[in-house]
Amino acid sequence: MTKPNRGARRERILIASSEVHPYSKTGGLADMVAALAKTMARRGHQVGVVTPLYRGILEKHPGIQKLDYSLRLPLGADWVEAEVYTLSPMPGLTIYFIHQPAYYHRGSLYSDSTGDYPDNAQRFIFFSKAVVHLARYLPWQPELVHIHDWQVGLVPLLIRHQREMEGWGTPPHTLLTIHNLAYQGVFGPEAFPLTNLPTEYFRPWAAEFHGYVNCLKAAIISSDTLTTVSPRYAREITTPEYGCGLDAILRHRQADLRGILNGVDYDEWQTERNPHLPAPYSQRNPEGKARCKSVLQEQLGLPVRADVPVFGSVTRLADQKGVDIQLGALEEMLAADIQFVLLGSGSPDLERAYGELARRFPTKVAARIGYDHGLSHRIEAGADFFLMPSRFEPCGLNQMYSLRYATIPIVRVTGGLDDSVIDIAEDRTSADGIKFQEYSSRALAKAIRKAVALYQSPHLLTLYRRHAMQADFSWDRTAGEYEEVYARFAPPAPPLPPTPPAVTAPPPVSTPKSRTPPKTKTVRATPRSKRAAGSTRKAQARSKTRTQRTVATRPASRGPTQSRTRSTQPSRKRSPRRR
């Protein structure tokens, strides 16, 4: 259970994300944002979350209320209107939904069967502008805007521009969390006018990257500080191998980059009172896991056998997840007496390949294409081992779920997988998983053979399962690290009142009521030298009231001021998390 952090200053935090569980989800981003927001609210902070109102949300969550307020924001030469809906699921937390049906009422969040939606630039540039508008006009005045991934990557740049050119006296600080550097929000140069920023912002020190608009790169350049979702991934993305073309920029910001391992929502992912499981179990009473295994085998049409190890996988069928080398390893290992169960969807070619594998080995392989939340819990509980052979993995959550479910994870040494699993070859007194280094089917098959041998040693298997269930990845630990980052920006101020003030609608934006676009007034940027000098004077004035000074001057070769606040580098040595 999350405990209030009574010793920390209460912050006013606005979180922006394109998806938030349980309202919208395509992956771990939605889970992380939801858990972070809930945990911060429980710890006494005032938290708002901004997200699009996708199709179906209102029907599934009837408590959502429409505000007597609407947005009308410029998007290039057009003006786009939207409504704002809210929901307060718990004290201290308010969700703000941006309702723009033409952009967000679609079959899925980002793409359809033909690929990414062609107007994703319009959809998420508009969403970024809506976030900035709320950050500026919400009555409770957020002190920090915490953005997640490329879909809101232009928010820090828009805030900086409004601070410098539109007289936003004390704008909130900005924090970017990178969940997956491979997804950057890259659009052609024709997308830049949609931002309504001066053309000087389409430069390498701002939104431009090799002639294209790169939303994530703009956020990396212009956010006050950066985090990513594991310490090892924070180091990896500064290298050419994992930097996805942005490694040089990330090395430049390395002093401001911190890796914070995601937490697990143990209210959802637990084995003692889980409605998705056929039997409860725990460290003290582990017998129910055997029942979960037999029910899983029966449900998926496999022979019910306690004497064979079951290997599980719940994954997106994409190259990043290592499912290609997994196929090769299984071709070799299915000659042994093992069973394999898969739940996932993604590449049509990979879906067909796993379907064909199940047809060839009907007594050893079961493949379910798609996603079933209840089945994902039953695979985690019923499997003996869980495969995660990722090519790269910023954090990963399933290996942490597996540990809590006493299912031994088999992982490749990369990103958060390395940070969260202790190999049986490293330290037998605390080991809880099996690791392999080389990205190949041969290396994975070798790791599977280790697992088969371990299954034949019940005493060791029981020991490692006990270690696994003792691993602690609670959100309280993760939230404490984020509070350390938030506290860097906090000015000395009296605490908020015991009860957060009621959230009311922001004041109406002063824009023409007519749908006819007004004549555009060009705001000319001041010369760089003058603006840099002005920014320096403002930063020096603000430093008198802040606990940590932000250096706002920039070199003559750079654009809008770039904050240079230092953070503690992540330790290269991982300490096992034990309860």
List keywords for this structure.
about 575 residues, Rossmann fold, alpha/beta, nine-stranded mixed β-sheet, about 30% helix, 2 domains, 18 helices, about 20% strand
Using the 3D structure, state the CATH architecture of the largest domain: 3-Layer(aba) Sandwich
The low-confidence parts are 492-576
Name the overall outline. globular
* Spatial ordering of strands, largest sheet: 3-4-5-2-1-8-9-13-14
Query: How many domains would you count in the coordinates?
Result: 2
Give a brief description.
This protein is α/β, with parallel strands linked by helices. It is built from 18 helices and 20 strands.
How are the SSEs ordered, and which strands pair?
Blueprint: E1 12-16, H1 28-42, E2 46-52, H2 57-60, E3 65-75, E4 78-90, E5 93-99, H3 101-104, E6 111-112, E7 115-116, H4 120-137, E8 144-148, H5 155-165, E9 173-178, E10 186-187, E11 208-209, E12 212-214, H6 215-222, E13 225-228, H7 231-236, H8 247-252, E14 257-259, H9 288-299, E15 310-317, H10 323-333, E16 339-346, H11 348-360, E17 365-369, H12 373-382, E18 385-388, H13 398-404, E19 408-412, H14 415-420, E20 434-436, H15 441-455, H16 458-470, H17 475-487, H18 528-543
Parallel strand pairs: 1-2, 1-8, 2-5, 8-9, 9-13, 13-14, 15-16, 15-18, 16-17, 18-19, 19-20
Antiparallel strand pairs: 3-4, 4-5, 6-7, 10-12, 11-12
Can you walk me through this structure?
This protein has helices spanning 28-42, 57-60, 101-104, 120-137, 155-165, 215-222, 231-236, 247-252, 288-299, 323-333, 348-360, 373-382, 398-404, 415-420, 441-455, 458-470, 475-487, 528-543, and strands at residues 12-16, 46-52, 65-75, 78-90, 93-99, 111-112, 115-116, 144-148, 173-178, 186-187, 208-209, 212-214, 225-228, 257-259, 310-317, 339-346, 365-369, 385-388, 408-412, 434-436. By secondary structure, the chain is of the alpha/beta class. The chain folds into two domains: 12-263 and 476-500, 3-Layer(aba) Sandwich (Rossmann fold); 288-472, Rossmann fold (3-Layer(aba) Sandwich), CATH 3.40.50. The strands form four sheets. The protein has a nine-stranded mixed β-sheet with strand order 3-4-5-2-1-8-9-13-14, with helices on both faces. A six-stranded parallel β-sheet has the order 17-16-15-18-19-20, with helices on both faces. Strand 16, helix 11 (348-360) and strand 17 form a beta-alpha-beta unit. Helix 9 crosses helix 12. The longest helix has 18 residues, at 120-137.
